[in-house]
Write a structure and sequence with these properties.
With about 250 residues, this protein is α+β, with helices and mostly antiparallel strands. The protein has one domain: Jelly Rolls (Sandwich), CATH 2.60.120.10. Helices cover about 30% and strands about 30% of the residues. The chain is built from five helices and eleven strands; from the N terminus they run H-H-H-H-H-E-E-E-E-E-E-E-E-E-E-E. The chain starts with 6 loop residues before the first helix and ends with a strand. The structure holds fe (ii) ion (FE2). The site of fe (ii) ion has 4 residues, from strand 3.
Length: about 250
């Protein structure tokens, strides 16, 4: 049809469509009054794990040169990871987009960001481990659980309170009880405690502010990033004096 138009009309037709396209671009670039364009931009800003990969592989290579045994290499990485992430200015904000996209029935977002098994050059330097980012919405908490593997938590964004204690197994009934009578705030980029898989590593992580999301990296000495041995879902009670919580499953 456009071929049947006069040159003057063709120019006018093209001019109008160019104006519409330019207006659409300008509105998108400026953002809507409620900031939805900015939000969409953040959703698109995916987390780039290359910075973490570079730091972790460098720490392992340095440890290997210092003759660090392969079975203690993951703990060495965990102890030094925070200060290197901070010095390099690694941003984890891209992981927050997982909260905006929603995760169905999942109570919180969990994302494997490093697996040593994916790097053949590391196989003779370390036992296999994985680093998993746990992203919590404001006020959200993980399920209370213990681990069958070594576990090193490291706060990288926001505030997180850790509630922790121990797990007991009553020999006669076979009932597992978790008593969480301690709590502490994780400190950003500072390793606090590296858990061994025993009866004293039962915990849950809570977003601490109630109004901002948070991210913690957990290093697990397990190739796929799996870690949980038991989940404790049922709250029995809280002791008023000690603040201890009893969980039974
Ligand atoms: Fe854990």
């Amino acid at each position: 049809m456009i071929n049947r138009l006069s040159n003057k009309k063709k120019i006018g037709f093209c001019y109008r469509w160019c104006c519409i396209a330019l207006m659409a671009y300008a509105v998108n670039a400026a953002g809507s009054p409620d900031g939805s364009t900015m939000k969409a931009g953040l959703i698109g800003a995916r987390f780039d794990g290359a910075g973490v990969e570079e730091i972790v592989t460098r720490l392992i290579d340095e440890g290997f040169r210092q003759k660090v045994a392969s079975d203690v290499m993951p703990e060495l990485v965990w102890k030094n990871l925070g200060e290197h992430l901070e010095a390099a200015g690694i941003s984890f904000a891209g992981l927050l987009s997982s909260l905006d996209e929603g995760n169905g029935s999942q109570p919180y977002h969990r994302e494997v960001i490093f697996r040593s098994k994916d790097y053949p050059g590391l196989h003779n330097k370390t036992v296999q481990f994985a680093i998993v980012a746990i992203v919590l919405s404001p006020g959200q908490e993980t399920v209370t659980h213990d681990h069958f593997v070594e576990c090193g938590p490291l706060l990288v964004e926001g505030e997180i309170t850790e509630v922790y204690g121990y797990t007991d197994q009553l020999a006669i009934t076979g009932t597992r009880v978790a008593i969480l009578d301690k709590r502490r705030k994780l400190r950003k980029f500072l390793p606090i405690q590296y858990f061994r898989p025993d009866q004293k590593n039962t915990h849950r992580l809570q977003e601490g502010t109630g109004n901002r999301p948070s991210i913690v990296l957990n290093l697990y000495v397990e190739s796929e990033g799996n870690s949980i041995k038991n989940r404790f879902l049922k709250l029995l009670g809280i002791d008023r004096e000690s603040g201890a919580e009893w969980w039974l499953q």
